[in-house]
Amino acid sequence: MEIARTPAQLRAARAAFAAAGRPRLALVPTMGALHEGHLSLIRVARAHGDVVAASIFVNPTQFAPGEDFARYPRDEAADCAMLAAAGCDLVWLPDVTTMYPPGDATIIDVAGPALLWEGVARPGHFRGVATVVAKLFGQVRPDAACFGEKDWQQVQVIRRMVDDLGLPVAVVAAPTWREANGLAMSSRNRYLAAAERAAAPALFAALTGTRDAICAGAPVRQCVAAGEAALVAAGFTVDYLALVDAQTLEPLSDRVGAARLIAAARLGTTRLLDNIAV
Length: 278
Ligand code: PAF
Description:
The protein is of the alpha/beta class. Helices cover 38% and strands 19% of the residues. The strands form two sheets. A six-stranded parallel beta sheet has the order 1-4-3-2-5-6, sandwiched between helices. Strands 7-8-9 form a three-stranded antiparallel beta sheet, covered by helices on one side.
């Protein structure tokens, strides 16, 4: 597996792969702290490129003040070993100055699907995500980029940005990777204390229970209230549980078209996100 730490190394690696008859590249952008969910994205990426690349960059601009930027888990050696074992061909490890050079004055501010939910709970978060993903696309120039559906709203924001800017990248969304108990894999799960980890699968259970009730024809508002009550009973503080349009993230009061049930809820200081199709 090639490792590139500078734009020049990245360009040289990209050129070497192309010269070897492997011109198409699929990128898996990450912030490290890798788990099986990321590795599933590496496997999905294999179907979309001759070369599979991952980027690791803990992006400061997508963390609001007071969030976990400082303590976000960083273990480059372990991450690279996992990527190599999963068959990744190239890792892009830019530093902060490469991503945000002195005098940096450009941000990407997506409205539409970025405005609600995480956009409200984490002001500036999607501005940071869109900006760093646009930079990664400019540096790596992938033909395709793979993101996990666990961050459903993030995927819609990136799709919106790619469509609006006409970026030549196919955005591929891959299914959420779950533990056997249903808990969506996330780098932040490692913050959970033992009792919180035991309670955490209740988030997926509340989503599936709410979805099943909606699909059985019960009023959406009533189903969502029951789902929230189940989360509170399991020890969560609920930020939101909502039925939304799968693309625009606008709230839905009825099940029409492609709908998604999305949730964010906290166990202690750890905030968990999950979502399912309805
Ligand atoms: O989903 C993530 O890990 C991050 O938001 C991303 C897409 C790598 C941008 O920093």
